[in-house]
Amino acid sequence: MDYSIRDIKLAENGERRVEWAIEHMQVLKLLRTLYKSNKAFRGIKIGCCLHITTETANLIINLKEAGADVFLCASNPLSTQDDVAAYLVKYKKVPVFGRHGDDKKAYYQNIKNVMSIKPHLVVDDGCDLISSLHKNSHFTENLIGATEETTTGVIRLRSLAKKGMLKFPVIAVNDADTKHLFDNRYGTGQSTVDGILRATNILLSGKVAVVCGYGWCGKGIAKRLSGMGARVIITEVDPVKALEAVMDGYYVLPIAEASKVGDIFITSTGDTQVIGIAHIKKMKDGVILANAGHFNVEIDIASLEKSAKKRKIRECLDEYTLPTGKKVYLLGEGRLVNLTCAEGHPSCVMDMSFANQFLSLEYLKNHPRLKPDVYNVPSDIDTKVAKMKLKTMGISIDKLTHQQKQYLTSWETGT
Ligand SMILES: NC(=O)c1ccc[n+]([C@@H]2O[C@H](COP(=O)([O-])OP(=O)(O)OC[C@H]3O[C@@H](n4cnc5c(N)ncnc54)[C@H](O)[C@@H]3O)[C@@H](O)[C@H]2O)c1
Questions:
Q1: What number does the ligand 1 atom closest to the CA of 152 have?
Q2: pLDDT tens figures, 36-76
């Protein structure tokens, strides 16, 4: 946390960008006003491991203004926006651990710094902070519970719970409808395209784009690429998702086949080794590889590093020349392309994800005796976030009449 003295200019830049973001986060802004006076989090220490972006800064400010002591570390070394970190340290007095480009050692030291505050509540994105707390249980003596932001984190948590090893309750914020239906789909969809374009400035129109995984993120990415004129191929392992992709109008192929025809490849599976070196060897000269899944394990980068000569072409764009002379281009070191090559999700969509985070943390604080398990976001929170979002967008909807309510809960159908 060495931003405070040397980075005043950086902090001022961060301030303007954080203020711009909150104008597109009207639900969070409303919650900030509502909770500022009641100080619902007074006396509560919150340890957060999140992408250090303008949207995260606004969540942190909400928690701080509601009375919490908040400590932040980066959930990915390449997504940290240093101006945002500097702003939080300098103007909001939030201890922030993480600089853009930190190495592995610094990354885990940052997590350790946040763990050492012995938090009452934890917010995680990808489960690195929570799993570190499991390995260092002396830091959990105050812990009431945690929330998890992303699909990969929830998978890791469910695995801990299944083995009976989960030590505290965690709310799977990712699984709220007002989170994954919007953040994963529209947020990842748009910002992945943004990341590809910022890193390469290529024309998408007419390109063959291969999207690996047709889950929430994959659906969004495919739709946006297709909207920009790319011809999209989906690869899947789940027959239902594959069928859905076909019915949505995409080509579906195994990766071994898709490798031969794609111009751009984007993984979004949460899985490992989805694109292996054997696939890369089959690819055309000049293809672009990117990953939108949480960890940089979806493309076999280690084998690429071993078997090819590497050259940095421009920011976020590395060229690999294989022994055959064929070149492939990797974006953002194979880390989340939307966060490393662009700024991550638009604020408007993070508004709902972080409103869920804020209200789930309040729920945990008010329910200190939950057993260790993975919990869904309570449905009334999910509904509340949807209602608030619609309201802030100026959209009204209909209400069921008494007669309709009765009809919809009756076994008798009218003729
Ligand atoms: N980039 C971002 O900002 C961002 C945002 C949200 C989630 N994520 C991450 O993106 C990943 C996907 O999240 P999601 O919500 O779409 O998950 P999801 O579970 O909805 O979808 C994943 C899909 O990948 C498929 N899949 C698994 N292994 C595969 C393989 N070998 N080949 C092809 N398909 C395969 C699964 O069948 C599934 O349909 C996770 O790691 C998640 O944490 C990233």
A1: 43
A2: 998 999 999 999 999 999 999 999 999 999 999 999 999 99
172's enclosing H/E stretch is strand 170-172
96 in Cβ contact with 52 (< 8 Å): yes
Q: Which atom of ligand 1 is nearest to the CA of 212?
A: 33
Helices (H) and strands (E) in the chain, counts: 18, 15
pLDDT at residue 89 greater than cutoff 90: yes
pLDDT, residue 414, reads 65
Which residue from 334, 340, 230, 203 is spatially nearest to 274, judged by alpha carbons? 334
Reduced to 3 states, what is the DSSP secondary structure of residue 178?
helix
Element (H, E) at 291: strand 287-291
Domains of the chain from N-terminus onward: 8-179+346-392 (3.40.50.1480), 186-340 (3.40.50.720)
Please tell me the distance between residue 135's alpha carbon and the centre of ligand 1 in angstroms: 26
Q: What residues flank ligand 1, with Cβ below 6 Å?
A: 150-152, 180, 184, 188, 212-218, 235-238, 241, 268-271, 274, 292-294, 336, 338-339
- pTM higher than 0.90: yes
Nearest to 221 by CA among 234, 206, 240, 239: 234
Ligand 1 atom at minimum distance from 269 CA: 24
Q: Does residue 346 register a pLDDT over 60? A: yes
- Ligand 1 pocket: which of 156, 217, 255 to mutate (most atoms within 8 A of CB): 217
Residue-wise pLDDT tens digits, 227-286 = 999 999 999 999 999 999 999 999 999 999 999 999 999 999 999 999 999 999 999 999
